Structures are given as structure tokens and as C-alpha cells.
Amino acid sequence: MAGRQSGLIGNSRKTGLACLLAGIAVAALAAAPALAAGDPAPAAPPASAPLPRDYPAIPQAPKGAPNILLVLTDDVGFGAASTFGGPVPTPNLDRLAATGLKYNRFHTTAMCSPTRAALLTGRNSHAVGVGALTDFPMGAPGYTGMMPRTAATIAQVLRDNGYNTAMLGKHHDVPKGPFVTGGPYDYLPNNLGFEYFFGFIGSDTDQWHPTLYRNTSRLIDDKPEPILDQRLADEAIGWIHQQQAATPDKPFFLYYAPGSAHTPHQAPPEWIARFKGQFSQGWNKVREETLARQKAMGLVPRDARLPAWPAELPQWDSLSPHEKAFQERTMETFAAELAFQDAQLGRMLDELERMGQRDNTLIMFVEGDNGPDGAASPNGSLSESGELANRHLTQEEHWQMLGEVGGPKVASNYGTGWAQAMATPFPYYKQIASHLGGTRNGMIVSWPEKIQARGLRTQYGHVIDIYPTLLSAIGLKAPDMVNGFTQQPVDGTDLTYSFTDPQAPSRHRVQYYEMVGNRAIYADGWLASTVPQRHTWEMTGGPDAGINKAPSYVWELYNLDKDFNQTTNLAQRNPAKLAEMRQLFDAEARKFNVEPVNDRTDAERILAEGQFYAPRRTHYEYWGKGIMLDTDVAPSLAARSFTITADLTGGDGVIAATGSSQGGWSFAVENGHPVIHQAFSVMPSDQTHVVSSEALKPGQTARVTFDFDYDGGGAGKGGVLSIAIDGRKVAEQRIARTILNGAPHAESFDIGLDSGVPVIWTDRGVNAYTGEIRKVTFDLGPQGRKRQ
After folding, report:
1. Which of 169, 47, 60 is closest to 119 using CA atoms?
2. What's the sign of the alpha-carbon dihedral 426, 429, 435, 436?
3. How far apart are CA 788 and CA 726, in angstroms?
4. Max Cα distance, the chain (Å)
5. What is the 3 state secondary structure string of 421-468?
6. Which segments of 501-596 does DSSP mark as H helices, in order?
7. What is the CATH number of domain 67-500?
8. What is the DSSP secondary structure assignment for residue 680, as one 8-state letter?
9. Which residues face 663 on adjacent strands?
């Protein structure tokens, strides 16, 4: 029967084709002009006339061009991974280093956004408008947060030259404003040369409940597993499979930027258990042990000594037993996250080998986009952004939540003492661009088919060097024009000269550094740098946060050819050299849009500048559910009165939410009762719940009003919360204080659900509203003052 059906189908197709051809012939005859009597018959076209074959050219990569895997990890200091002498085992990075070159004088910019912009464009970060985090914009060319079209990314250049391109992981180069969920989407990866993007936007996201995008669309995935680093590796392997299936003759460029080991530090519990008790010796001893390993590996000179321990950081032996227990657990969690991330790298390397692609894949692996993160303060934190913005928890509260560290309900960061240990052998850490602990990161280059040399490379390098190095390795030149825009000069130096000659002198001879007032200038082995004026954990709330002290910073001088890790200040011994170096910094600052140097990081300035691209309103309307917005274009509930009016029909679930259980608001219906939740911190004692005394009837159409009457008198004050149904008040409660910012930063503002990390954890998991949301409005009072 099956054969007969097949024959019938075949006959049907033949009949259909005949009808189609006949129809075309009839149509052609009908369209032809009628011949008058005596007209000559039209001449038949020559039988030998060739068909036109003028097809547009498709970009072709140079013959033998390698696949490229570019990896950039996050907040991993020079002295963290075992590959560079650290205490965290990274066997797969060790394995990669064994097949290539290890660089011990490679540098970043000291912060996330600038490093990533410099890496992608090959230009200095201020020269492409990203002189600081895109969260800290300023109305000057070097600080707009907007990468210009005159600095095409490496992805754009490679795509135009026959590569398939993809980006997976963190993208922190979108300006504040509507550019994530409102458009224009010029700064999202798909418009920066990447044909495919899967990852998150901004500084960080949760490993268990990440805020993810696929290309330009927000994903909703309430499943906490697999944890994010595993998902990214799954996605990378899947994309390579697809790329090789569709275009096996094209090389690929994969930019892989996992969020690890940025906060939150989270990892599978079995990985955390592997490190139980391994850091009980404390940060002072770990630092000494790391330096000893680095010397044995030849990474640092035998006569190198540790910089002085910062006076603002406690000695390990001064901590109480509870403090030690918390600090150990946070370091165990950091180690587990970094080790787990390394295991995912191993999976990717295994698959490239299985597919026969490893030998002709050029891998550049940069271990950290800056130094380790010291912003959690010496005490550490259960939610870095939440504690910075809303309330610093006590050390006893930290200890009480010990069992949650690494899991989905907290977003821990280790204490600054661990950050200093993870920067070994250098002074300071992330954000401090004046010192090597903030800017020195390890790098590995491996390309088995072409780079036969192995071992250590000591040439000076910077993240801007990756762009020209990749182009040179492929055999391409930086384009003069891209999409009609004349390109500005590439600032980086091609490092391929170092691939074959370990003794070659450094060709990257001058490099400036600047980050929120901390400055340095490198030139031929010398480094002049400023003395930091503010602790990193006082970034937005310290005593000097609103004062620009940059002009009065003290400068120091170091000879890095003789003082590998910046321990001996020569400023008083050689004032002439210091003056020369400072003049060079001023010239570079003018050249690359570093001026005006501004170290103000107060929340008021950040809020004012951040609103420039998306001015705040006092009235917002939302029609229907399933709306997810970046908080830059959403109503801010901080330090003000507000009224939320929701027109609903039936159902349970979240009506509106912003932030998370680490700091956030949720307005919902639970078991028919309208409710308000405020999470002031992760501590149960900091949770506020206001519940209506009256329930909505099943299927009832009602207007539910959530109101907050703010006390005024500045930020973070209290007031009166109330709930009304169809104008009838059904709940009222006074609260003593309110959050300033939702945490973490990547959490979106949602209507009809609470995506990512929820404000309230429920057994149901999914919290989406089950009924109809017809309309939700937000009306906001003046910030910092009582409602008139």
C-alpha cells in the first residue's frame, strides 16, 4: 500500500508540473504582441547564448584562516588560578597553557566595561567613549558609554572577511538608557558584528536564575539548573556544531565571556564541598603560599617580595571564629565557581579535539577583565550591590546565613582580604588602575598548528593588543572603512612577534591607565601612578564620593624592570623622571579623551547622568502582562511616594516586581489576597509583607491599588503602605525604611511575573499571574520629599 501511495504521489507531482509548465506557456503567449499579417517571425535566440552569472561576491576568509576562541573571564586576579600560581586548581587552563604561551605582563583597564570595549575595538577605552563603567556616564567624549562606528569591533571585521561570529556570556558595553529593552539596539552584540548572542547584559547576573537574552530577545527560564556556566558551555558547543554543519568551510570566531568569577559567587554544592577547609589558613598565609608557587614556576623573579599588607584590611588572626567561618565559606565558594568554570572550558576543548578542530583553532584566554573584586569591604557580603545600596549586614548576620552561601538565595562576595590575596604578588585589586593588582591579568595563547613554541612570555601587553594580534595571525589588515565610516587608528600592538621569540624586546612601549581618578602611565619599564584616595567599598557612599579630589592625588614612581610587582617607590629619589612621566600621562590623556579626570562616584551624580539618555517620568502605563524592562526605562520607587493601580480579572501571581530577594518590591495576588512585599535585604527580619484582609472573588474584575505614602526627609526613609480594592482600603501598615536600589543590577522590572531572582521565594517556582492584567499604572511622587 505504501508503494502504491508513493506512486500516486509521484504521478500527482508529475501532473502538477505539467500543468505548471503549460500555464507558463499560455501566459507567455497571452502576453506576447499579436503579429500583423506579413510581419516577419521573431528571430529565435542563439542556442549558444550563455546565461548571466554575475553573482554578488560572498566574503571569503584567507586560505587556512584559523578558528578563533577568545575567552575573557571576570574579576579573576593574577594570583587566583593554579596556572598562574594561585590556590584554585584550573587543570584545563593548565592544559591549554601546556600547548602554548603564558604571558605574565599582560594588562587590562581595572574595570569591566572599559576592558571589554578595548578588547573588542583594539582602541583605548576612553578613545571609544567607555572610560568607566557604562553605569557611570559623563557628558564628555571619553565617558558617554557609546562605542562609535569609527571603531568597528573585531567581530565586525571578521564577519566581513568570511567568518561566522558568535558571542556567549557577559556584555557590559551598553549605555544606560533604553538601549537594552527599548532601542535603538545599536550597542547589543548583534549590531556589533556578532551573528549570534546568548548571554546577559550588564555587570552581573545570578548563576542559578540568570537574566538572559538570545540575540535581542529576553528569555524566560525559571529552571535553576543547569547552572549558568554549564549552560554557556552547552550553548558554545551547540553553536559550533551548528556552524560546522551549515558552513564547514568557514572559520568561526567565538567570543566566550562567562560571568565567573564576578559576584554573585555561586556554584553547585558538590563543587563547594571539594574546597571545605582548604582556606582555613587565611588570606595572609594563602598570599605567601601563592608567591612561593609563582617563584617556583618562574612567573615572578626569585627576589620578589610581597607588597605591604594594606592597613585598612584586618590580619586573618584578628578575626573571631564566626568571622573566619564566613570568610572561609565565601572563599570556598569563589574557588568552586572558578574551578567549575574551568571544567566547562575543558568540555569545550574536548569537543574541539573530538571534531578535529583543535589544531587550527587559535585560542586567546585572558584570565580576568581586571583584578579581583574588593568592593564587598573587609567583612565580605551576602549581596554586594544590596549591601552597598541598602544596608550593610553585621558579621553575625553573615554567619547566620552561612549555609546559604553559594546557593540561589544569596549573592555572596568574599572579603577584601581575599581579593588582596587573589591579586598576589601585586598591590590592590579591581578598580585601582594605578596599581598592578587592578590591571595585571594572566593570558594564554595556544594555536598548535602554527605556534610550535611553548613557555613563558614576558613582553608587555595590553587588552588593546588582542585585536591587531588576531588580524595579523589571520593575515588581515585593519580596515580603513567599515560600513561607510572612516576608522580611527588602532591603538594596540600586534603581539605575534612574541610567538616565536621569547627574548624579543617589548613593542608596546607606552600605555596610560585611568579609572575614576586612579591613574598610571607606563613607558619602557617605568610606571608612574597615583595613590588611591577612596576604598573600593565606598565607591558610591564614602565621605568623598561627591567631591572630585583627582587634581590633588599624590604620584609615585616605580621601575618595573627591577621591581616586578611595584613595591619600591622611587618618587623622592628620581623627581625628574617622575615629572617626565607625568607630562607623558598628560599628553596621552589629551590624545585619548581621558580628560576631564573625575573621581566622583556618588549616587546622586550617577542617577542624574544616567537619566540623560532616558529621562525619568512620574507616570507610567503598562497594557497587559509579560512585560520585562531594563530598570533604566522603568519607574524608580526609591525614596518617594507611589501609587500603583492594577485593573485585573481573576487569577493569582505577581502583578509587578522590581529587584530580588536581596533588595526589591513585589506587588501580587496570593490565594486571592492582594499583597505587597519589600525585601530590604536577604535577612528574614528585613522582609516586609502587607496582606489584604479581603480576598478577590474567583473571576472577579477589580481595580487593586497599592499605595505608599513616603515620610520624606531624604533617602531610605519609611512611610505607610496600603492596599485598596475598588477604592475600599483593605490593608495598611507602617514600615521604617525602604530600599534605595533593587539588587542585583541585572534584575529587570516586570509586569505579570517576577523573572530572574524573585523578591519572594515560593514553592511553586513559576510566579506568573494566572488571570488577566488589563492595565497597570505607576504614579510617582517627588524623590526624597513627602507627597504634597
Report:
1. 169
2. positive
3. 24
4. 115
5. HHCCCCCCCCCCCCCHHHHECEEEEECCCCCCCCEEECCCEEHHHHHH
6. 575-591
7. 3.40.720.10
8. S
9. 660
* Three cell numbers written together for 119: 578588547
Fold of the 616-780 domain? Jelly Rolls (2.60.120)
Instruction: Note whether 433 and 518 are within 8 A (CB).
Output: yes
pLDDT digit string, tens, across residues 738-768:
998 777 777 999 999 999 999 998 765 569 9
Residue 222 has what pLDDT?
62
Which of these, 528, 524, 507, 522, lies nearest to 457 by C-alpha position? 507
Which single residue is written with the C-alpha cell 564620593? 545
Three-state secondary-structure class, residue 228: helix
| CATH fold match for the domains 67-500 and 616-780 | no
What whole-number distance in Å separates Cα of residue 540 and Cα of residue 601?
5
3-state helix, strand and coil shares in percent for the chain, rounded to the nearest 5: 30, 20, 50
- DSSP labels for 52-92? P--PPPPP-PPTTPPEEEEEE-SS--TTTBGGGT-SB--HH
- What does the DSSP assignment read for 286-349? HHHHHHHHHHHTTSS-TT--PPPPPTTS--GGGS-HHHHHHHHHHHHHHHHHHHHHHHHHHHHH
Nearest 5°: phi and psi at 732? -155, 135
**Amino acid letter, residue 204:** D
Closest C-alpha among 260, 181, 238 to residue 213 = 181
Q: How far is CA 334 from the centre of its chain?
A: 17
Residues listed for the chain: 788
Residue type, 217: S
* Displacement of CA 11 from its chain's centroid (Å): 59
Phi-psi map region of 608: left, alpha, beta (phi>0 left; psi -120 to 50 alpha): alpha
Cell of 322: 564566626
In order of 190, 437, 573, 721, the CA distances from 692 in angstroms are 46, 53, 73, 11
The tens digit of pLDDT for each residue in 687-714 reads: 999 999 999 999 999 999 999 999 999 8
| d(C-alpha 586, C-alpha 597), whole Å | 11
Order the strands of the 164-171 sheet from edge to edge.
Answer: 217-218, 213-214, 196-201, 164-171, 252-257, 67-72, 361-367, 442-446, 101-103, 455-457
Residue-wise pLDDT tens digits, 141-192:
999 999 999 999 999 999 999 999 999 999 999 998 899 999 999 999 999 9
Please name which of 405, 472, 406 lies closest in space to residue 122, comparing C-alpha atoms.
Answer: 472
pTM over 0.90: yes
Q: Where are the domains of the chain?
A: 67-500, 616-780
Decide: 108 and 370 in contact? Cβ < 8 Å.
yes
pLDDT in the model for residue 45: 57
